[in-house]
Design goal:
By secondary structure, the protein is of the alpha+beta class. The protein is about 30% helix and about 45% strand. The protein has a domain of about 160 residues: Sandwich (Immunoglobulin-like), CATH 2.60.40. Strands 1, 4, 5, 8, 10, 11 and 14 form a seven-stranded mixed β-sheet that branches. A four-stranded antiparallel β-sheet has the order 9-7-12-13, with no helix packed on it. Helix 1 runs antiparallel to helix 2.
Length: about 230
């Protein structure tokens, strides 16, 4: 190989190295941005005991709820097009007490957990209900899809307590109705939905990953050629 050809080949390989490093840096930057743009926010609180008056057949009774530890997480910052998750974990610190003990088996006590997020789709629904557990952890879970790029302070979470007659206490012609519906807490869920040039997360992820792998592959070719030249 002549000196002129060798010099030209060296310049080409150097350009290949610079091009591969540029691709890798752009790809790594994109992946880093996607990692930064995903942040799960958390909130923990102990919901204090509440005394709830319940009137049954003209008789006033009270139901006293125990303290409940709540752990709530939601996507505080998320790329457009990436599914988010909302998790609620609750743990009761005691048993429900009744001032009229004969009513303890006459009512079902339920927890209603509800989420509202504008311009989004919630799955399985915006309102979930389960029995109040006095011995095990209670969990609610949603997946959420965001449709527009925005920063919303209007998203909210509600936790309510529903007290209703059990099916056995109802006449055959009656349907199960809520006797009382009490709010345990409300919480705003500020969420920032962000994107680059309005492009969805999946597209940006695929482009960033492709640039990273392409750059690394070209750099590997440069290293192999450089090693071969060194050995020669």
């Amino acid at each position: 190989m002549s000196i002129k050809q060798s010099s030209k080949t060296f310049r080409l390989m150097r350009l290949l190295m610079l091009f591969s490093l540029t691709l890798s840096m752009v790809g790594f930057t994109g992946l880093g941005w996607l990692f930064w743009s995903s942040k799960q926010a958390c909130f923990e609180v102990t919901i204090l005991s509440k005394t709830i008056p319940i009137t049954v057949d003209g008789r006033l009774c009270e139901m006293i709820t125990p303290e409940v530890d709540l752990n709530l997480s939601w996507p505080g910052r998320i790329p457009l097009g990436k599914p988010g998750s909302i998790d609620v974990h609750l743990k009761s610190n005691g048993d429900i007490q009744w001032t009229c003990s004969d009513l303890s088996n006459s009512f079902d006590v339920l927890l209603e957990s509800r989420v509202e997020i504008p311009d989004s789709s919630l799955h399985p629904s915006d309102r979930l209900i389960q029995s109040f557990s006095q011995s095990s952890e209670m969990n609610f879970f949603w997946t959420v899809d965001f449709h527009t790029m925005s920063t919303s302070e209007l998203s909210s979470f509600w936790l309510n307590l529903i007290v209703r007659k059990t099916a056995a206490e109802l006449d055959s012609n009656e349907s199960i109705i809520d006797i009382e519906n009490w709010s345990l807490m409300t919480k705003s869920l500020p969420i920032s939905i962000i994107s680059l040039a309005g492009l969805p997360y999946q597209y940006l992820f695929q482009v960033a990953l492709s640039l990273t792998w392409s750059g690394l592959f070209l750099f590997l070719i440069f290293l192999l050629y450089d090693q071969r030249g060194t050995v020669a």
